[in-house]
Write a structure and sequence with these properties.
Elements lengths: L3 H52 L5 H26 L4 H18 L1 H16 L7 E4 L2 E8 L3 E6 L4 E5 H4 L5 E2 L5 E10 L5 H14 L12 E7 L4 E10 L3 H18 L18
């Protein structure tokens, strides 16, 4: 049977040790709290400074948000490690735990990390920006949003195409908006018996009448005989236009071109093939 006095002395020893631990822990806890509040206050000041910094510079809005979020979370992680260290947790143990967790997460999320890396490359290298019309991964559309993991395109048919950034950053991207102007090459097929020079003059006059066609030195409208096809003589009508005028101009030239050619007796032949039948005796 245990001695009551011995048991009581053990409890007193435990209480004494707990009190000593609490008294030893309190200064570190208070300093950690102070460090936490001061650190959060400094992070808010830095966020405000970076926001004002980007406001006075012409950067892509998506890049601005990404940079601000990256700075914010990096500073908070550093603050968290510092506060935990102040509470008495050994830095080496904490780093080992974070490293092991990071390795496990990295192996489990390889695809997501590839998309993250692709998003960083897109935001830094800026092959396109929000509002650009691009072609990539078999999709064409206007860039609606660029996030860390994926890019959203609004297609011509008003569908939403979502492309992972990992694939997007490693494949060919055609940016139709970046240069501001774009060249068109429309093909008009006429019959072999038609007057080629007359057809060329009709189409070239049509293009030169359009106010939205650019008349820039070295980029003047032109028309050439591009091909002697199986069923037609193919003329290539080439001109330059601003991105905003491109599609309306294309549709106008196609429709007006057909009407003017037909009005002058120029035929636009259908695909045809001559078939010879021989009577076998």
């Amino acid at each position: 049977m245990n001695d009551p006095l011995s048991t009581l002395s053990q409890y007193e020893e435990y209480i004494k040790r707990a009190a000593n631990w609490i008294w030893a822990f309190i200064p570190g806890f208070i300093s950690a709290l102070i460090l936490l509040f001061v650190g959060l206050w400094i992070i808010r000041l830095i966020k405000r400074f970076t926001r004002k910094f980007f406001e006075h510079r012409d950067y892509d809005p998506t890049l601005e948000k990404f940079a601000q979020d990256l700075i914010n979370w990096t500073l908070k992680i550093i603050l968290f490690v510092t506060v935990i260290t102040q509470l008495g947790v050994k830095t080496t143990s904490l780093v080992a735990i974070i490293g092991a967790a990071g390795l496990a997460i990295g192996l489990a999320l390889q695809g997501s990390l590839a998309n993250f890396a692709g998003g960083v490359l897109i935001l830094l290298l800026r092959p396109f920006k929000v509002g650009d019309f691009i072609k990539a991964q078999g999709q064409e559309g206007t860039v609606k949003e660029i996030s860390i993991f994926q890019t959203k395109l609004n297609t011509f048919g008003n569908q939403l195409a979502i492309i992972p950034n990992g694939q997007l950053s490693n494949e060919t991207i055609v940016n139709f908006t970046e240069e501001g102007i774009r060249r068109e090459a429309l093909t008009f097929g006429i019959g072999y018996d038609d007057d080629v020079k007359l057809a060329k003059n009709i189409l070239l006059d049509l293009v030169n009448e359009q106010e939205t066609v650019l008349q820039i030195e070295g980029k003047e409208p032109m028309i050439v005989l591009a091909e002697l096809g199986d069923s037609s003589v193919n003329l290539s009508l080439r001109y330059w236009a601003h991105i905003d005028d491109f599609w309306n101009l294309r549709w106008t030239v196609l429709e007006e071109g057909k009407e003017r050619l037909e009005a002058q007796g120029i035929t636009i032949p259908y695909p045809q093939r001559d078939v010879h039948l021989y009577k076998q005796e």
